[in-house]
Amino acid sequence: MKNILISGASRGIGWALLQKYLQNGNRVFAVSRNISNFITLKEQFSTTFDFASCDVSDKSDVENAIQNAGNFLNNIDLAILNAGISGSENFENFSSEKYKYIFNTNLFGVLHFFEYLIPSMKNNNGGTIAVTSSLADVRGFAGSAAYSSSKAALTRTLEAARAELHRFNIKIVTIRPGFVRTDMTAKNRFPMPFMIDAGQAAEIIINALDAGKARINFPLPTYLITNLLQLMPDALFDFVMKFYKVSIDE
Ligand SMILES: NC(=O)c1ccc[n+]([C@@H]2O[C@H](COP(=O)([O-])OP(=O)(O)OC[C@H]3O[C@@H](n4cnc5c(N)ncnc54)[C@H](OP(=O)(O)O)[C@@H]3O)[C@@H](O)[C@H]2O)c1
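Above: the input record for the complex with NAP. Below: its predicted structure, written as tokens.
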């Protein structure tokens, strides 16, 4: 049995992870802004599940949530920092506020947890922090600059943290999904090849974490395609992007 913290657990990939970890007999503390699904789940898992409402972009909210999680779980063995938002923006009518909003959730929403989790795991002689980035971190995609760049910043941050925290027995895991069928992708108005269900995504993540992987990239075809995009000559990528723009319903 593991003591697990999951952020962004009210829907989508986080909700699927939460249910599977509880069904497998683990003790889980979940956070997100909306807690209505958690109230129902608590009736079923009264002793092994607890939760807090928390906006990860608000550092004091995260501090409170971590305190409550610590009280419930004692030692946190595994933290899955999964909360994230997408969004499209338009450089023709640009808003830096919208950009900040996405970075405040996708990047700082993880870093706020780092500030409290790292000292606590160091005291406990180790632990695992797994963070959901995205295969969209490979390039700047027209129409979703804030999302792809927030995930790129996140992936680079995790890589550096992994190297530094290794000596404290703190393992940093980077989760990079392709398209997964959730509320997030339901708003996308562009082709999403090789899309999988949230339950399948959760299964892949849990198995890879159990196997001790440091990087979890899936599904394979999307991983290979995004690797090719990364290796593509810049001039060719710029040319292709002239004919492609991500469009997302707000
Ligand atoms: N779906 C995909 O195709 C895909 C692909 C690559 C990466 N990802 C990443 O996977 C993660 C989960 O995405 P998903 O597809 O499961 O999305 P989702 O169904 O929209 O769920 C997002 C989760 O994040 C929480 N969240 C969002 N903003 C938050 C905030 N400020 N504070 C606390 N919780 C917040 C939401 O809960 P509340 O709204 O209740 O707060 C919800 O539980 C994200 O990091 C996303 O970027 C998804």
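Notes for the reader.
The first helix runs from residue 12 to 23.
The mean pLDDT is 96.
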